[in-house]
Amino acid sequence: MTTSLEQSTPALAQDDPEVAVLEVARRAREASRALATATRATKDAALRALADALVAATDRVLAANAEDVARGRAGGMSEGLLDRLALTPERVVAIADALRELAALPDPVGEVVRGSTLPNGLRLRQVRVPMGVVGMIYEARPNVTVDAAGLALKSGNAVVLRGGSAAASSNATIVEVLAEALAAQGLPRDLVQSVDAWGRPGGVALMHARGLVDVLVPRGGADLIATVVREATVPVIETGVGNCHLYVDASADLDDALPILLNAKTQRVGVCNAVETLLVHRDVADAFLPSALAALGQAGVTVHGDAATLAHAPQGVATVPATEADWGTEYLSLDLAVRVVDDLDAAIDHVRRWSTGHTEAILTRDLRASERFVAEVDAAAVIVNASTRFTDGGQFGLGAEIGISTQKLHARGPMGLAELTTTKWVVHGDGHVRP
Amino acid sequence: MTTSLEQSTPALAQDDPEVAVLEVARRAREASRALATATRATKDAALRALADALVAATDRVLAANAEDVARGRAGGMSEGLLDRLALTPERVVAIADALRELAALPDPVGEVVRGSTLPNGLRLRQVRVPMGVVGMIYEARPNVTVDAAGLALKSGNAVVLRGGSAAASSNATIVEVLAEALAAQGLPRDLVQSVDAWGRPGGVALMHARGLVDVLVPRGGADLIATVVREATVPVIETGVGNCHLYVDASADLDDALPILLNAKTQRVGVCNAVETLLVHRDVADAFLPSALAALGQAGVTVHGDAATLAHAPQGVATVPATEADWGTEYLSLDLAVRVVDDLDAAIDHVRRWSTGHTEAILTRDLRASERFVAEVDAAAVIVNASTRFTDGGQFGLGAEIGISTQKLHARGPMGLAELTTTKWVVHGDGHVRP
Predict the structure, then answer these.
(1) Across the interface, do A387 and B432 touch by the CB < 8 Å criterion?
(2) pLDDT at residue B8, rounded to an integer
(3) Can you tell me the mean pLDDT for B186-191?
(4) Does B235 sit within 8 Å of A407, measured CB to CB?
(5) Residue pairs between chains A and B whose CB atoms are closer than 8 Å
């Protein structure tokens, strides 16, 4: 075990993970009480102090990170993952700046969502309040540790973190730095805690801490999210899996369609709002597919096409005959499933069958087609005549983004700070009894 | 098996419950598509047609209900439960009228929750849409069958019902009548289905139908709710358990306090917003407790008091020394735990320790005390100077009530029709690509 891990691991680490993690969650809940009634000024000052502390601790953080990177390299981690794991002085500054940007955002807590005076004179207000304790389960990148802590604190919550073991030393040191900075601000250091010291069983215990943890947000690949959804008894907000479709209707503006397709597929391939399947109305297959497939090929995309699609593929474009598995795959790579459909109904049916409910787009100049697609497709975001890549908290103007929810409860689509809060009904009477 | 059960049980009932219930859920999902884009006029006409059909089928419903009542009586069911189970022509009319009242409520679907035009010209709207398929798991009372179906349909959802076995014949017949009436309206009969034919395993299968059922609402006792929360992989909205407190502060208006206490405890004892623990500031224990305990005794309430409380109990009041178990008990009966506390902090600490997060009330004339109680108590509803009995969808003016959520995700407190919907982001562009 590394030095930085030892420093952050209390005596409890030897204990039963279930017991130890419940104790962490209990301390988080107690600490959250201090933050629930804190003013925005207090929270923002704390966020700025955390940013300063992180930058001041750059050497410590980089030393811990170097341990992770060395362990990763020894374990044969790919260069791409090593790059995501590695911190530099510039990256530490960028992570700290993100905390300062959070401080500049409005505080969701205290917003009066609705209110009225009832006929009997009772005064009713529904007010936004913090959840209490937010759990975050995520993978390798150490910047998520800071990001998650910042989002939780800004929205008035304590946070319990479970990061990937690949970044264990970095995360342990970062949590330590943040906790020390909180204490220096007169806030409980238990507002930011990690359960990494208890490994995988600690993560499972966190998923079962119902009543102590109010919400769990998994951030990472499909496997991680599926595990959390299956295991957790704590309420979960499911994020991120995006098998997104782009449908080019018979009446689409084909001059617009090509740049939108390339943007949706190739601007960033590893993200959940990248397009994974292209559907083309058969009436425009001749006019659109040859140039579209050529451009995709040029961009390095492998086309997984049905027979009608492959018949239009020019020489030199990498193609694979599509199987049903392709319709259900979120590639997150330079691959695209392509299918020619008979009409709008067939397109909607395909989307309804294979969508993960993230983002679905139609390109059309036909008003009725756009309205039917919007009404009948069931997804967090339905986009008309634009790239799927716009489904994003930043792009939507929501400020900081916790993730993109693909479930229907509580939050759907890009989640901002408000989604880490709940509401409380406050009722004022004057001796009222119910008749 | 009774005739009415046989009529409503398709061939699938002999199959594996897991397979059969998933098929029911799949049909519900398909049927929900027809309702998702239905206008309010269509839905309201359907609700009125269901009401008419129920009244027209009174004889059939009462015959099935008589089977349940006979079975219940043979099985030794208490008179109270038999009364809740039994239907009469008048009760059928009342159940039908509730559907007509639902038809008169505004439609939550289509509401634009927020919207804006982004700097790049993308037009953004967040629109309220149906969930899709709502699952409802509940206990004996057959009126809940109609109620749940009506709430789901009004909010544009298909519903899959799992009722208590005690009302199996009544529920099967009611579902049949509703499905026939839907078909007569040109709507899919699969919009209202029951999985009662597959018994307890069918209920469990419904809890596991993730991806087909969008939300599960358990309605019933604490055991039922705990089971659903533990078992379900479908997102659950937890309802109802209310260990509610009433705190009489040092500065309370004691003339108001007595009627509020009696109202909160005795107006209806079996409901989740009835008070279960009374906390009294020690400075007013002498002035308040003797008369309060006498009045409670008069009303038939047994007082489970701490030593300081019992010292104030007049002759003839039924008292029991309170143990810690009393602080954690939702009696739902003519029992009340009573404790004298040293100050506001002790009251808040007691509430934070034992609250189920339903409704907590303070009686005070001190502004700071009321503000601290409101800010520091973590519950769906915090009430100042009024009875806990006001936490109710009808009382809050929300129209129909699905239940009272005690969780923090999605819905907290009384849930109206809007809580059976989700939202969809609709984005309109004109060839936009993300830079």
Answers:
(1) yes
(2) 42
(3) 97
(4) yes
(5) 210
pLDDT at B2: 37
Give A324-343 pLDDT, tens digit per residue: 999 999 999 999 999 999 99
Dist. CA B295–CA B255, nearest whole Å: 13
Residue percentage of chain A with pLDDT more than 90: 82
CATH topology of domain A244-395: Aldehyde Dehydrogenase; Chain A, domain 2 (3.40.309)
Based on DSSP, count helices (H) and strands (E) in chain A, helices before strands: 16, 16
Judged by CB atoms closer than 8 Å, whether chains meet at B408 and A380 is answered as: no
**Which chain A residues are within 8 Å of B352, Cβ to Cβ?**
33
B434: chain A residues, CB-CB within 8 Å: 263, 267, 387, 389-390, 395
pLDDT tens, position by position, B28-76: 999 999 898 899 999 999 999 999 999 999 999 999 999 999 999 999 9
A235/B381 touch (CB, cutoff 8 Å), yes or no: no
**Domain A3-231 class in CATH:** alpha beta
Whether A318 shows a pLDDT value over 90: the answer reads: yes
A118 and B396 in contact by Cβ < 8 A? Answer: yes
A3-231 and A244-395 share one fold: no
**A386 closest CB neighbour out of B122, B235, B412:** B122
Q: Is B144 helix (H, G, I), strand (E, B) or coil?
A: helix
Average pLDDT of every residue of chain A: 93
Which residue type occupies B278? Answer: L
**Helices vs strands, H then E, count in chain B:** 16, 16
**B244-390: CATH superfamily:** Aldehyde Dehydrogenase; Chain A, domain 2 (3.40.309.10)
pLDDT digits (tens, 9 = 90+) for B354-411: 999 999 999 999 999 999 999 999 999 999 999 999 999 889 988 778 889 998 999 9
Contacts 24+ apart (CB under 8 A), B80-84: B81/B140, B81/B166, B84/B140, B84/B141
Calpha distance A192→A151 (Å, rounded)? 11
Domain ranges of chain B: 3-231, 244-390
A83: Cβ contacts below 8 Å, ≥ 6 apart: none
Which residues in B lie closer than 8 A to residue A433 (C-beta atoms)?
A: 259-260, 262-264, 267, 386-387, 389
